[in-house]
Specification:
3 domains; six-stranded mixed sheet; four-stranded mixed sheet; Rossmann fold; binds iron/sulfur cluster; single chain; binds 1,3-dihydroxyacetonephosphate
C-alpha cells in the first residue's frame, strides 16, 4: 500500500526531456557522471535496457545488486532497476546515502501480488490451522513491508540464485515454509530439494484460503499465489515447438517459469546462472532462452558465435523495467546536479529495521 502511494507521488518527467536526441542525452549523462565521480553509483539490473546499462557502474542480478548496495559508500545511488530493488538498496545503505529510482512507476507486478494486509490476514489463518510450525520466506521481489513481516517472524529473503540454500536453511528452523510471493520459484525450488508436489499447497490471498486436496498435515510448503507476468509467458507449447522444429537447440529458463516449463527444459536457473551458462557454452551451440527480453537480446549481441533465440518468439521486455529509460536517467542526474533529489526511495525506518533482519539472514548465508 505504502509503495503504491509512493508510486502515485511519482515526480513526472519534465517536457523538456522528452524531445532530446539520444546523442545529446548520452553526452549530458556522461558529463554529470564525471562531475560526481565516486559520490554517485549507478547499479543496473540485467533486465534493463542498453540505453541505461551503458552507464551502469555495476550490472548484476537481484542478489549481486543487493550485495553491491550493502558494500557501496556513494552519497547518491541512482538505481536502474525496479522499485523493490531500490527499496532493498535503501534498507542496506547508511543514512547519509540517498537512493533514487528515476521513474517511480518502475514497479514489479509480482511484488504487487502480495500485499501486507493480505499477508497478515493469511498468516493469522495459517497459524490457526498449523500452529507455530511455519517459517516465512520471501523472494526479494516483494515490498519492504513484506520483508519486514518476514524478518519479524524469524524468516529471510531469498533470490533466485540462493533460493535452494535458503529453503534448506528454513527447514532447519520450522517444519513448514510459507513462500512469498512467487509460487513458481517456490515450487521449482522445493521440488529440486525433493519435496513432492503433493506436499505443496497454494495460498489464495484473494479468497483467504488454501488450495489443496489431501491431508493438510502433509503440507510442507505453502506457496503464495503470485507469479511473474513476464516469465509466465513462456509456455509448454513454446518448448514443444522447439523440440519439434529444432531438437538440437538447448532450452534454458529462469525458475520464475512454471513447473511444467522448467520440467521440460534442459536447464533452469537464476539470471546469473543463465548468463554464465551461455558465456561458457561452446561456439556454434544453439539455445532457446526463457527469460526477460532485454537480457536475451544482450546475450544474442554478446555471443555472435552462438545461435540464440527467445524461447517465446513473441516475447516483450518487462514493461516496468523499461520505465527506466535514458530521459528519466538524465533528468534524475541533472536534478542532482541542480541540488534537487527527485523520486527518492526512502523506506520507513521501522519497516526498514525489520526488513533488514530478513535481508541480513540471507546475506549472512550466501
Ligand atoms: P534475479 O535477478 O534474482 O534472477 O530475478 C529476476 C527478476 O525477475 C528480477 O526482477
Ligand atoms: Fe517483476 Fe517479472 Fe518484471 Fe522481474 S521480470 S520486475 S519479477 S514483473
Amino acid at each position: 500500500m505504502l509503495e503504491l502511494l509512493e508510486r502515485t507521488r511519482n515526480q513526472a518527467l519534465p517536457e523538456i526531456y522528452k524531445d532530446l536526441s539520444e546523442a545529446e542525452m548520452v553526452e549530458r549523462v556522461k558529463s554529470v557522471k564525471e562531475k560526481f565521480g565516486d559520490r554517485l553509483f549507478i547499479p543496473g539490473h540485467h533486465y534493463q535496457k542498453d540505453e541505461v546499462m551503458q552507464f551502469a557502474d555495476a550490472a548484476g542480478d537481484s542478489l549481486q545488486l543487493a550485495q553491491l548496495s550493502a558494500a557501496n559508500t556513494a552519497e547518491y545511488i541512482v538505481f536502474c532497476g525496479v522499485h523493490f530493488m531500490a527499496e532493498t538498496a535503501d534498507i542496506l545503505t547508511n543514512d547519509y546515502q540517498q537512493v533514487i529510482l528515476p521513474d517511480m512507476r518502475a514497479g514489479c507486478s509480482m511484488a504487487d501480488m502480495a500485499d501486507i494486509h493480505q499477508t497478515e490476514r493469511g498468516w493469522k489463518l495459517m497459524q490457526e490451522s498449523f500452529g507455530d510450525t511455519i517459517l516465512p520466506l520471501t523472494y526479494v521481489n516483494s515490498t519492504a513491508a513484506i520483508k519486514a513481516f518476514v524478518g519479524e517472524n524469524g524468516g529471510a529473503t531469498v533470490t533466485s540464485s540462493n533460493a535452494k540454500q535458503m529453503l534448506e536453511w528454513a527447514f532447519t528452523q520450522k517444519e513448514r515454509i510459507l513462500f512469498l510471493p512467487d509460487q513458481h520459484l517456490g515450487r521449482n525450488t522445493a521440488y529440486e530439494l525433493g519435496i513432492p508436489l503433493e506436499n505443496m499447497a497454494v495460498w489464495n490471498p484473494i479468497l483467504d484460503r488454501l488450495e489443496y486436496e489431501g491431508d493438510t498435515e502433509n503440507i510442507q510448503v505453502i506457496l503464495w499465489k503470485g507469479h511473474c507476468s513476464v516469465h509466465e509467458n513462456f509456455r509448454v507449447s513454446n518448448v514443444e515447438q522447439i523440440r519439434e522444429t529444432n531438437p538440437e537447440r538447448k532450452v534454458i529458463v529462469h525458475p520464475e517459469c512454471s513447473r511444467e516449463v522448467v520440467d521440460l527444459s534442459d536447464y533452469a536457473g537464476s539470471t546469473k546462472y543463465i548468463i554464465d551458462t551461455i558465456s561458457k557454452a561452446p561456439a556454434g551451440s544453439k539455445w532457446a532462452i526463457g527469460t526477460e527480453m532485454n537480457l536475451v537480446k544482450r546475450l544474442i549481441h554478446q555471443h555472435p558465435d552462438k545461435d540464440i533465440v527467445s524461447l517465446n518468439p513473441y516475447m516483450c521486455p518487462c514493461l516496468t523495467m523499461n520505465r527506466i529509460d535514458l530521459p528519466h536517467l538524465l533528468w534524475a542526474l541533472e536534478s542532482l546536479e541542480r541540488g534537487k533529489v527527485v523520486n527518492r526511495i526512502k523506506v520507513d525506518p521501522h519497516i526498514a529495521r525489520k526488513a533488514n533482519l530478513a535481508l541480513n539472514r540471507m546475506l549472512a548465508r550466501v
